[in-house]
């Protein structure tokens, strides 16, 4: 048997290889992989856990499933024995993150930030073991930095390097305005890594520049530079745009069980597998076996129900997931075929006539009105008689006549 290779005097054991495999699952990029492998090997040899950081700006009161892609990875690393740091950017939120934007994002007030941050802690509990995690606020070190410290920090990076960032470059080239304070955001996020002495920082692919800034500043301050790990941006319910509150294609982790379950079932069969990889805690081998079964003829809805129940149970309970499945089945009964089109629509509350037209169940809103007058429209098996009906967000089984059906998820 060959001797295990060494990584800077620390052996690359099976445990280290397993930890590396856990790190890489579903990731977009890990930089530099050699440095992270060394850190893992050193941690196992010395018994000193690594410090894993993720920053979250409290720009809205609720966290959605897209955020939990990174939280899941943090939980996986936490389960390996490392220290995860959930950093709430109460200071940087007042600046406003320009990442991926073609205009300045308006900063929030201190009152708005504090109100949103209060809800984050309880929501983090749904994914992370907050008893062993560090939950920090970057105002701890950012407020005391002061004007002198901020100017000294700004001296550690050049304007030319800052303009290499795509959104800054594109906005400058197009003549769009860039405020000076926007340059401060990546600097302050990078300084967070210095203050926390992080070994690894996680973020979405749109955060790569900011993550590398932390690595650069740690070197400027004489620290061992962190590695960076980017996770893919999760597509929302529409399967096209990234999950976002502003695009209304999201599932909030504090949504009620019935709504969460139904929304997961509304995603496409193709998107389901990406969600399995990024959101499920099932092993990769188990997911691969399930996918082979579906490709071999098993109903894809069976797999989607498994995913919906797993996610609903995680953020609520197993009993709530069972009840949500029963609720969904009950609302889907009433002579409804097993396989009906799945339609996702936005713009709630949406008038019934517009919904029928947009769902392809009526050629026009005027024809939809005539169908309603004739008693030919049902929602969840109940006849619709009011042409002025407006539907709130949710999932509905809509029937027109005897043969036209659609399961419409309205957001």
Mind sketching the topology for me?
Elements: E1 6-7, E2 10-11, H1 14-24, E3 29-31, H2 33-46, E4 51-56, H3 65-79, E5 83-88, H4 110-124, E6 134-137, H5 139-154, H6 159-162, H7 166-174, H8 180-196, E7 200-204, H9 208-220, E8 227-231, H10 257-265, H11 269-279, H12 284-295, H13 300-315, H14 318-332, E9 342-345, E10 350-351, H15 352-358, H16 365-373, E11 377-379, E12 382-383, E13 390-391, E14 394-400, E15 404-410
Parallel strand pairs: 4-5, 4-7, 5-6, 7-8, 9-15
Antiparallel strand pairs: 1-2, 3-8, 10-13, 11-12, 11-14, 14-15
Can you put this structure into words, describing what you see?
With 411 residues, the protein is of the alpha/beta class. It folds into three domains: 6-231, Rossmann fold (3-Layer(aba) Sandwich); 257-332, Orthogonal Bundle (Tyrosyl-Transfer RNA Synthetase); 342-410, Structural Genomics Hypothetical 15.5 Kd Protein In mrcA-pckA Intergenic Region, Chain A (Roll), CATH 3.10.290.10. The protein has 16 helices and 15 strands. The chain has helices at 14-24, 33-46, 65-79, 110-124, 139-154, 159-162, 166-174, 180-196, 208-220, 257-265, 269-279, 284-295, 300-315, 318-332, 352-358, 365-373, and strands at 6-7, 10-11, 29-31, 51-56, 83-88, 134-137, 200-204, 227-231, 342-345, 350-351, 377-379, 382-383, 390-391, 394-400, 404-410. The strands form four sheets. Strands 3-8-7-4-5-6 form a six-stranded mixed beta sheet, sandwiched between helices. Strand 5, helix 4 and strand 6 form a beta-alpha-beta unit. The longest helix is centred in the middle third of the chain and has 17 residues, at 180-196. The model has no long low-confidence stretch (mean pLDDT 87).
